[in-house]
From TrEMBL:
The keyword Cell inner membrane does not apply. Residues 2-223 form the ABC transporter domain. Keywords: ATP-binding, Cell membrane, Membrane, Nucleotide-binding, Sulfate transport, Translocase, Transport. The chain holds residues 1 to 223 of 355 of the full protein. The keyword Iron does not apply. It comes from Rhodococcus jostii. This is TOBE-like domain-containing protein.
Length: 223
């Protein structure tokens, strides 16, 4: 579970997060939905430790993470534009987080093969990122983020740069991944349809505050 309590963040005279409170339940796939500039990325980056709130408290699994560096927060992060290591193969990219943690080679290889299978890149391990499509690259990014067994998976508009058809396909992958791995996931999106399609909880942001939070059925009357 992630708790965000009374978090404020200002940039000069602009309030990006305004006394914001939210609870992300363990194992949920929670979407942060809201218009551009509503503070979604700032909130996600604050959870990741890439941004530092001016005040307030964020906990992950009961631990106050103020001052804890990003790499010690047990987080996997996927951005809209994935910064893959271009000179490394798909396998090496996915293994990266494990390699720097000096896990045994055999263990890494088994884990990476497993994850590449889960994201449907089983036959692509020896390719380079430039030889993948945009959708395949984002699936590689998901596998890489999951390789370290994160407590929390943070996704910032991960499908935003892809065309509609690939986006739809990636949503299906994400749902499947979440069903199989049960990692507590927070997805930033400005696309209501995406939130409705993949999330089991939706938090609607506006001007740095949570306006509503609930299940898709609670928030939107859908047949
Ligand atoms: P969203 O993800 O909902 O589009 P953001 O969290 O990226 O919103 O940004 C919220 C507001 O804070 C925006 O108006 C943005 O321009 C501003 N902002 C974000 N980061 C910075 C920064 N580093 N410096 C100044 N303003 C920023
Ligand atoms: P996205 O919404 O695609 O995640 P953003 O527009 O939020 O991208 O911003 C990307 C980066 O630029 C972030 O590091 C953010 O903090 C910074 N940023 C956003 N808005 C501003 C701004 N008005 N001034 C300075 N930096 C900004």
């Amino acid at each position: 579970m992630i708790t965000v309590e009374h978090v404020n963040k200002r940039y000069d005279d602009f309030t990006a997060l305004d006394d914001l409170n939210i609870i992300v339940p363990s194992g949920s796939l929670t979407a942060l939905l809201g218009p551009s500039g509503s503070g979604k990325s700032t909130l996600l980056r604050s959870i990741a430790g890439l941004e530092h709130p001016d005040s307030g408290t964020i906990t992950i699994a009961g631990r106050d993470i103020t001052g804890v560096p990003p790499q010690q927060r047990g987080i996997g992060f996927v951005f809209q534009h994935y910064a893959a290591f271009t000179h490394m193969t798909v396998r090496e990219n996915v293994a990266f987080g494990l390699t720097i943690r000096k896990q045994p080679k055999k263990q890494i290889a088994a884990k990476v093969d497993d994850l590449l299978g889960v994201v449907g890149l089983g036959g692509f391990q020896d390719r380079y990122p430039a030889q993948l499509s945009g959708g395949q690259r984002q699936r590689m990014a998901l596998a890489r983020a999951l390789a370290i067994d994160p407590q929390v998976l943070l996704l910032d508009e991960p499908f935003g740069a892809l065309d509609a058809k690939v986006r739809e396909e990636l949503r299906r992958w994400l749902r499947r991944l979440h069903r199989e791995m049960h990692v507590t996931t927070v997805l930033v999106t400005h696309d209501q349809r995406e939130a409705l399609d993949v999330a089991d909880r939706i938090a609607v942001l506006n001007t740095g505050r949570i306006e509503q939070v609930g299940s898709p059925a609670d928030l939107y009357d859908r047949p």
